[in-house]
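Page 37, continued from 36.
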């Protein structure tokens, strides 16, 4: 005899019999064995008719021989297996085989599910089935079913595409209808599709499934029936929903022969017990509502269904809607969850990515600037964003890069940049490091001007004392050379640029907010300061004519801007972020996070100003010329240009459209400035052609700037109710503070300041459901925290077109040599930063760093060779990839709890199986065993 499936074994299990120590659950009979029962049913010999009321049991009539009353366990429900978390697509092509309808089943891994129906519009799948599409819907697997009918095979009608597929896998033709129960007559013409078919109706083991097949039976009265688990007593005590189905039976081991052997006539099953004896099963009703709403009914269809539910369960329409609305919100949230998770993951990765300056700058600048940024609690990107416009302003007017002569496409070295940072984010130290040498230039220029004025006054007096017939040309009054200014009014800029028609100018306002707010402030808002500033971005000529006779005419200008602004102020100025004038798209933004910067316990002078002074001097002395792209660089640029253009066309956000457009030209500007800057650091003249390596760096940097704009615009989306940026900010906040309460979030996130605590706690639960952390406590004590290891392992990768991606170092070294890594000498030692320009030192640029002997950093007087951990890799006996200095790793050990889950640890040095590691923005390093580190392959 063939082995019965698991569920049949349960229902055919040995009975227990009444006896002395085993009373009947219904009548407490102990004197004999006349009563028997198993886990599903009790056959009571005392109460054959319904003359016993036992809580937990439902009377289903007497047996056919009239000797026992049948009492079923009211709480007994089928044990339906929980499906794993996944998505499954099912397709309903049209009768001619063209795409028509797609059904996506989403199992959440908890036993709950929902369905999404989409139609093909000729180009893509879109939601909501139109009436025309509904009429074209066929039965599931239409063409295969038609072939089976033609071959004379019986067709099993089941509930659900998964059940039909399960039967096909064992060689039994099967089909189903779109929408499942209560939707049989809502689509197509199934009667015509199954004409001449020998139908076998196979209901799920629940009341809804039985009713669904009964409705189909009305159209096919000759159909036979197949009851899953045919010997199960559950057919006499069916649950409302969630019963076992044919797929469960096959999973339990039922063969095709057993399924075919179960085919027979329709059974006369016992009627439901009277409604008066039943309590409303609210969870079952919620499941029914959820299943119905997952089919995306129209408002009219939903209203009609509410009336039907009112008749079936007796609840008022108001009570029903109170159940429906939360489920609707939940389904919408779940449906959008995958997209939201992908967006959060992208925002996190964009925000967590840290620029490596040696990808863009010569090593003689990249390394010290990176060190200084880490010591003062800034980011290397902030240094670069301040440095580039300074370099641009020093290049003489006439310097440009030819992108394409045929298009007339030339770009000047003009940059507008801004650091977006909250108060206390070390903005001033960053600017001081980069602008101090420029201030030295200005000081020297002012001294030269004072000397020239003195000479001019002497010459003028001599000229005036000379007889008219003996006079030469009147001495010309000298003009000052302005390297930078904080005044950005149109008249001030026009005056300065008219005095230095071959030189650029850097605008460095104390706050960019003052620059934007101050436009036209002296003309009651009726001037054109803003328009003039936007025009200056292109380096166009400047012409001013006043009724007073004041006149300025300059063929070309060069004006760069750099400054800082607070995030909330900038978002307020951006308004709806549509950027109609393109003002905001002209700026390259750098979002500077708030980072710790402990006071150094021990200091050493580390000066970068002199080196920058030399570089600035070299840039200022370069002869203006038109540079060109090498053929390889032009191919790279053309491909990147096309990518940006495609994104501009497909982007729906007006502000981002402007960004993609401006970034096409900005890529060339960045390439030009990097080309000249790195050559100046190397002490040589820039080559005529901008190389492919420089263009690659410029493209990568442009991607990073686009990512910064996306972060900025994403936070603006919170005004419209977008949750992704809010959740991203909460994850970052929790990384620093740990467990968060509703009160903490309300004080931190401005978009939730008016939200109730219950709303904020619902966000906590949603973050937990998405896998971004965990909760603890109940009710008003509920708290949430992000789990770093879970957050960093999310799958949704960053689109490589939207931000910078990790790549091999560009290694801008030229003929220069790399400076010593001062911070690897000791993991705990602070360093004093100086921006003073040494007066007594011979100018050796960054090579002065070599003169700072690391012996001075150690009380024991050991030499650098004795203590340096730099570049001394050790061999580790392991099958894992060999770790080396510079690798990004994940901590997998258990000894250092503060490192648990971190996966952005950079190896600074290695010696004797010990690695010195540092995380993004850390002030101190940690020593970790190499065996506790694993290479982060996704870094």
């Amino acid at each position: 005899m063939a082995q019965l499936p698991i569920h049949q074994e349960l229902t055919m299990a040995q009975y227990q019999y009444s006896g002395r120590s085993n009373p009947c659950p219904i009548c407490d009979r102990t004197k004999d064995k006349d009563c028997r029962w198993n886990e599903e049913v009790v056959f009571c010999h005392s109460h054959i008719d319904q003359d016993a009321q036992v809580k937990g049991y439902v009377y289903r009539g007497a047996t056919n021989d009239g000797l026992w009353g049948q009492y079923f366990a009211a709480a007994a429900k089928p044990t339906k297996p929980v499906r794993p978390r996944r998505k499954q697509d099912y397709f309903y092509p049209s009768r001619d085989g063209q795409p028509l309808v797609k059904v996506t089943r989403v199992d959440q891994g908890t036993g709950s599910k929902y369905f999404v129906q989409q139609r093909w519009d000729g180009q893509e799948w879109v939601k909501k089935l139109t009436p025309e599409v509904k009429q074209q819907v066929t039965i599931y697997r239409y063409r295969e079913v038609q072939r089976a009918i033609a071959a004379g095979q019986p067709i099993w009608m089941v509930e659900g595409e998964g059940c039909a597929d399960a039967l096909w896998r064992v060689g039994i033709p099967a089909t189903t209808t779109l929408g499942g129960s209560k939707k049989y007559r809502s689509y197509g013409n199934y009667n015509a599709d199954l004409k001449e078919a020998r139908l076998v109706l196979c209901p799920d083991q629940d009341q809804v499934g039985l009713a669904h097949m009964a409705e189909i039976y009305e159209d096919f009265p000759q159909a036979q029936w197949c009851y899953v688990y045919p010997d199960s007593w559950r057919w006499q005590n069916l649950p409302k929903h969630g019963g076992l189905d044919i797929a469960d039976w096959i999973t339990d081991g039922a063969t095709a022969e057993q399924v075919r052997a179960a085919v027979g006539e329709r059974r006369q099953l016992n009627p439901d017990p009277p409604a008066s004896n039943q309590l409303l099963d609210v969870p079952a009703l919620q499941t029914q509502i959820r299943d119905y709403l997952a089919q995306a009914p129209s408002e009219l269809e939903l209203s009609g269904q509410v009336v039907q539910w009112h008749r079936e369960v007796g609840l008022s329409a108001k009570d029903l809607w109170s159940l429906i609305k939360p489920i609707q919100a939940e389904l919408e949230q779940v449906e959008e969850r995958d997209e939201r998770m992908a967006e959060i993951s992208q925002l996190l990765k964009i925000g967590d990515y840290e620029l490596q300056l040696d990808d863009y700058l010569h090593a003689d600048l990249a390394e010290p600037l990176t060190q200084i940024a880490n010591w003062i609690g800034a980011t290397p990107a902030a240094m670069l964003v301040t440095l580039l416009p300074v370099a641009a302003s020093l290049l003489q007017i006439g310097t440009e890069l030819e992108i394409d002569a045929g298009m007339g496409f030339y770009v000047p070295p003009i940059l507008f940049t801004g650091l977006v940072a909250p108060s206390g984010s070390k903005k001033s130290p960053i600017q001081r490091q980069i602008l101090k040498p420029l201030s030295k230039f200005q000081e020297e220029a002012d001294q030269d001007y004072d000397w020239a004025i003195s000479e001019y006054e002497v010459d003028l007096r001599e000229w005036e004392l000379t007889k008219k017939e003996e006079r030469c040309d009147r001495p010309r009054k000298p003009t000052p050379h302005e390297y930078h200014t904080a005044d950005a009014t149109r008249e001030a800029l026009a005056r300065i640029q008219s005095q230095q028609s071959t030189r650029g100018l850097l605008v460095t306002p104390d706050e960019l907010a003052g620059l934007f707010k101050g436009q036209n402030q002296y003309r009651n808002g009726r001037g054109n300061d803003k328009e003039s500033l936007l025009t200056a971005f292109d380096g166009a000529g400047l012409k001013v004519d006043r009724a007073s006779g004041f006149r300025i005419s300059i063929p070309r200008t060069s004006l760069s801007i750099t400054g800082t602004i607070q995030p909330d102020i900038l978002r307020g100025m951006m308004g709806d972020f549509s950027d109609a004038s393109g003002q905001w798209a002209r700026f390259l933004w750098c979002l500077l996070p708030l980072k710790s910067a402990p006071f150094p316990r021990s200091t050493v002078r580390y000066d970068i100003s002199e080196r920058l002074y030399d570089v600035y001097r070299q840039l200022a002395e370069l002869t203006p010329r038109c540079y060109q792209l090498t053929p390889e660089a032009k191919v790279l640029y053309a491909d990147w240009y096309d990518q940006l253009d495609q994104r501009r066309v497909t982007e729906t956000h007006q502000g981002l459209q402007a960004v993609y457009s401006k970034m096409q030209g900005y890529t060339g500007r960045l390439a030009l400035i990097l080309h000249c800057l790195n050559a100046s650091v190397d002490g040589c003249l820039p080559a005529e052609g901008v190389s492919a390596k420089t263009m690659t760096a410029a493209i990568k940097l442009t991607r990073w700037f686009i990512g910064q704009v996306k972060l900025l615009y994403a936070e603006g989306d919170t005004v419209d109710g977008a949750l992704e940026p809010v959740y991203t900010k909460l994850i970052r906040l929790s990384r620093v503070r740990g467990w968060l309460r509703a009160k903490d979030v309300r004080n931190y996130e401005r978009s939730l300041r008016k939200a109730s605590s219950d709303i904020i706690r619902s966000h906590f639960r949603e973050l937990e459901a998405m896998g971004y952390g965990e909760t603890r406590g109940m009710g008003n004590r509920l708290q949430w925290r992000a789990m770093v290891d879970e957050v960093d392992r999310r799958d949704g990768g960053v689109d490589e077109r939207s931000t910078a991606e990790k790549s091999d170092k560009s290694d801008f070294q030229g003929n220069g040599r790399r400076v010593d890594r001062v911070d690897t000498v000791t993991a705990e030692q602070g360093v004093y930063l100086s921006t003073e320009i040494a007066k007594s030192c011979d100018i050796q640029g960054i090579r002065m760093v070599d003169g700072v002997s690391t012996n001075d950093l150690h009380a024991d007087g050991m030499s650098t060779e004795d203590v340096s951990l730099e570049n001394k890799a050790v061999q580790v006996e392991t099958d894992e990839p060999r770790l080396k200095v510079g690798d990004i790793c994940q901590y997998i050990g258990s000894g250092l709890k503060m490192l648990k889950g971190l996966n952005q640890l950079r190896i600074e040095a290695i010696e004797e199986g010990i690695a010195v590691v540092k995380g993004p923005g850390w002030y101190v390093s940690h020593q970790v065993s190499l065996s506790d580190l694993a290479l982060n392959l996704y870094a």
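Residues 49 and 225 are 30 Å apart (CA to CA). Flag for discussion at group meeting. Residues 1-12, 271-278, 789-811, 813-880 have pLDDT under 50 and may be disordered.
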